[in-house]
Design brief:
Elements (H helix, E strand, L loop, with lengths): L12 H20 L6 H8 L5 H108 L3 H15 L7 H65 L13 E2 L2 E2 H10 L5 H4 L3 H12 L3 H19 L10 H24 L6 H23 L5 H20 L5 H32 L5 E3 L2 H10 L5 H5 L4 E3 L4 H20 L6 H29 L5 H29 L13 H29 L16 H16 L5 H23 L9 H19 L16 H12 L2 H7 L12 H18 L3 H6 L1 H24 L1
Antiparallel strand pairs: 1-2, 3-4
Helix pairs in contact: 3-4, 4-5, 4-8, 5-6, 5-8, 5-10, 5-12, 8-9, 10-12, 11-13, 12-13, 13-16, 13-17, 16-17, 16-18, 17-18, 17-19, 18-19, 19-21, 20-22, 22-23, 25-27
InterPro entries: EXOC6/Sec15 (IPR007225), EXOC6/Sec15_C (IPR046361), EXOC6/Sec15_C_dom1 (IPR042045), EXOC6_Sec15_N (IPR048359), EXOC6PINT-1/Sec15/Tip20_C_dom2 (IPR042044)
Family: Belongs to the SEC15 family.
GO biological process, one term: intracellular protein transport
């Protein structure tokens, strides 16, 4: 390239022409070259030179003319050769046309000959193409046929409901076969169909699961019944084996009904029958097809949705558990209601236990424990409620047996059942309550049917029959000749037998509770104590209070309770023989029968005292004194003689009573009689009493004193019984003798003759006699003849009043 400095013009004309020629020669050389860019060259021509364009054009025209001359010279030089060449070409033209004709003829003949070859070649090519297409088709079909075969296999599996295999086939199709031929449309359609088939399989398997859940809900009852029967048979067999071991090593225990079961070849016939039945018992797997659960679990596992399936299954089973645990409202009415309830629960948990061990993680031990704890709380609440409605002890006992079998069954499947056995103690209390109610009716019937008279025995057989039922031993009675009478009435051996029956019934509940002999002994003694201290005691108290029970019956009741009290030690021995627990054991509970019968006897004694007093009151009400009579009849009142005769005959019956009871009754009767007579004299409604009435009343009191001195009941010392009438005697003596001076002079002294006469009592009676004298003028003649005596009466009244006032002020 040439910059503007490279185009500098020489100063002289010659140098200038020479220089311009050289410069423009280089420029033209550059322009004629096609390899160099022209922009820089042209810019160098016009830069910084005036008229440079003009000079350049001039030089360019000169250059062109120079080239034209050279071309012309060259043409002139080669023209002759060109003419000669043309001439030679014209000569060759004829030969060329001839040659052209020959070539055309040869070509025609060649074309005619090759046309058949071409047709055959095209046929060969077409066949080769077909062959290649066929090979390609076979190759592609070989890739497609396994896909179609697998899809056909999938359809067959779906139709035959082999869904787990179908899912495996789908997995192979998606991962192995379809990717090989994914470019084909049918494979695309097939790939789009597979997710739908998966959802369809999920829905079908879920539907099968729902059918399974519904099926096991219906079959839970049968499954539970089967499992509980197996547990019962197993428990019965073990119990029989244990009995054989016990019988061979120790003395036999009492049976529940006093009898032992028949045995054959070392086992009871009942156990043998149960063992035979055991072979025919079906298992839960025989009753329920668990394949829908396994299938559904595998399907959801393959589909990667196992967690959803597990949650759904557990949720549904929880709902079913709540339904199973809901009892019928009338379940407590029959044992079948409880049995069905337990069967359903056992069936439910047997299924869950099978699922737990047959599947991996569908349900876990934590889940089953949670279900069981929830169920256990509900079961206990339900049993507490419904057992409280049971009034039949047989039904409560059946319930207890069901609870034991229920607990043993579930314990065999690994569920903790300690709370159920704790519940049995509450049920035991309920059972004892129902037993107590039942035996209360039994005792009541025995008391109502008793004739309350000593038991007559005509011969030795009858005597032994009574003694075999009740532990009675009396050397004096045994020496007597037949016929003879035993002191107690018929109710005593009946009560004793019923108490033993109660102990048997109570023992039935203690079976199979897995408790020691000491605990069973304690249970029996406590329940027997309740029977004696509450039920029997209440029945005795009610019996004693009944209005139709007379003195004779009360005396017999006291005798009966004495013998029953004596028999309590035999009841303790009876319990000891049942449980084989020594009574010397530290924690052994004692029977409270002694206090029970003592309380009943005391109540009967009190009732005797009350009825005696009531009878005395009835006789007193028959008294009909003529309080204004001038003088007495000279003999005792009829009502009082009847009363004394009644007391004599009554106290003769008391000969069989303990001495203190008869003495207390006699003393109580005399005191009540004396008190009633005193109240009759001092009755506020009685306004006037004559001296004749006092004399008549004195005759009656004398008869009472004679009765007391006749010792109606043996054992009184001296005149102890007569002291019951001492108050009356001193009062009547005071008025009969009219010994007021002595009374007033000795008042307050221990040696006073009238120590038992109260001033207020004497004043009240004196006032009644004073009023009588005024009204009937009985003392009118005395006032004329003996005014001093009248003044004495006035003085006595005043002094008695002062004594009464002094007593009131002192008090």
């Amino acid at each position: 390239m040439y910059s503007s400095s490279s185009l500098k013009i020489p100063t002289s004309p010659q140098e200038e022409d020479k220089g311009e020629g050289k410069v423009y020669g280089n420029v033209f050389a550059e322009l004629e070259s096609v390899d160099l860019p022209l922009g820089t060259t042209l810019r160098s021509v016009y830069d910084d030179q005036p008229n440079a364009h003009k000079r350049f054009m001039e030089k360019l025209d000169a250059r062109i003319r120079n080239h034209d001359r050279e071309i012309e010279k060259m043409c002139n030089f080669h023209h002759q050769g060109f003419v000669d060449a043309i001439t030679e070409l014209l000569k060759v033209r004829a030969d060329a046309e001839k040659l052209m004709g020959q070539v055309s003829d040869t070509n025609r003949r060649l074309q005619d000959a090759g046309r058949e070859v071409t047709a055959q070649t095209e046929e060969v090519i077409r066949c080769r193409i077909q062959q290649r297409n066929m090979a390609t088709t076979v190759e592609k079909l070989q890739l497609c046929i396994p896909v179609l075969e697998m899809y056909s296999k999938l359809k067959e599996q779906l139709e035959s409901k082999r869904y787990y295999s179908a899912l495996k086939t789908m997995e192979q199709l998606e991962n192995i076969y379809i990717p090989r031929v994914s470019q084909y449309r049918f494979c695309q359609i097939m790939a789009e169909t597979l997710p739908k088939l998966r959802e369809e399989i999920k829905e079908i398997s879920m539907s099968d699961l729902k059918d399974f859940l519904e099926s096991i809900r219906k079959h839970s009852d049968k499954i539970g019944e089967t499992a509980m029967r197996q547990a019962q048979q197993h428990r019965t067999f073990n119990s029989e084996v244990q009995k054989q071991v016990t019988l061979s090593c120790a003395k036999p225990l009492y049976g529940l009904n006093g009898r032992t079961p028949l045995h054959h070849n070392g086992l009871s016939t009942e156990a043998a029958d149960e063992e035979e039945m055991d072979e025919e018992v079906l298992t839960a797997q025989d009753l329920v097809d668990f394949s829908p659960v396994y299938r559904c679990l595998h399907i959801y596992t393959v589909l990667g949705d196992r967690e959803t399936f597990e949650n759904y299954y557990r949720k549904q089973r929880k709902k079913q558990a709540r339904l199973v645990l809901q009892p019928q409202s009338n379940m407590h009415e029959t044992v079948e209601g409880y049995r069905k309830y337990f069967n359903q629960i056992v069936g439910f948990f047997v299924v869950e236990d099978h699922i737990l061990h047959a599947t991996q993680g569908l349900v876990t031990r934590a889940f089953t424990d949670e279900l069981w704890n929830m169920a256990l709380s509900k079961i206990i609440a339900v049993l507490r409620t419904h057992s409280s409605y049971c009034s039949d002890p047989d039904l409560v006992l059946e319930l207890k047996n069901l609870i034991v079998i229920f607990a043993d069954t579930l314990q065999g499947y690994g569920f903790p059942v300690n709370r159920l056995f704790d519940l049995l103690f509450e049920v035991r209390d309920q059972y004892n309550e129902t037993l107590l109610k039942k035996w209360a009716l039994v005792f009541r019937d025995i008391f109502e049917q008793d004739n309350y008279s000593p038991i007559p025995v005509e011969n030795e057989e009858e005597y032994k029959a009574v003694v075999s039922r009740f532990p009675f031993h009396d050397a004096e009675i045994e020496k007597q000749q037949f016929p003879k009478k035993l002191p107690m009435s018929q109710s005593v051996p009946q009560i004793y037998s019923q108490v033993k029956e109660f102990i048997y019934a109570s023992l039935k509940f203690s079976e199979s509770l897995h408790r020691s002999s000491t605990e069973i002994d304690d249970m029996l003694r406590k329940s027997t104590n309740l029977l004696l201290t509450r039920t029997l005691s209440s029945c005795l108290q009610n019996l004693i209070k009944k209005p139709h029970i007379g003195l004779t019956e009360l005396v017999q009741i006291i005798i009966n309770t004495t013998h029953l009290e004596y028999a309590c030690k035999y009841l303790e021995d009876f319990i000891t023989n049942i449980t084989n627990v020594s009574p010397e054991t530290v924690h052994t509970t004692r029977l409270y029968g002694l206090s029970t019968f003592k309380d009943a006897r005391h109540a009967a004694e009190g009732e005797i005292y009350t009825k005696l007093n009531q009878k005395i009151d009835e006789f007193i009400q028959l008294a009909d004194y003529e309080w204004g009579m001038a003088e007495s009849d000279g003999r005792a009142s009829g009502y009082l003689m009847d009363l004394i005769n009644f007391l004599r005959s009554t106290f003769q019956v008391f000969t069989h009573l303990p001495g203190k009871v008869a003495q207390t009754a006699c003393m109580s009767a005399c005191k009540h009689l004396a008190t009633s007579l005193m109240q009759m004299l001092l009755d506020t409604e009685l306004k006037q009493i004559s001296m004749g009435a006092i004399q008549q009343f004195n005759l009656d009191v004398i008869q009472c004193e004679l009765f007391a001195s006749s010792e109606p009941v043996p054992g009184f010392q001296g005149d102890t019984l007569q002291l019951a009438f001492i108050d009356l005697r001193q009062l009547l003596d005071l008025f009969m003798v009219w010994d007021w001076s002595t009374y007033l002079a000795d008042y307050g002294q221990p040696t006073s003759k009238y120590l038992r006469v109260n001033p207020s009592t004497a004043l009240a009676l004196l006032e009644k006699m004073k009023d009588t004298s005024k009204k009937n003028n009985i003392f009118s003649q005395f006032r004329k003849n003996d005014r001093d005596k009248q003044k004495l009466i006035e003085t006595v009244v005043k002094q008695l009043r002062s004594l009464v006032n002094g007593m009131s002020q002192h008090s």
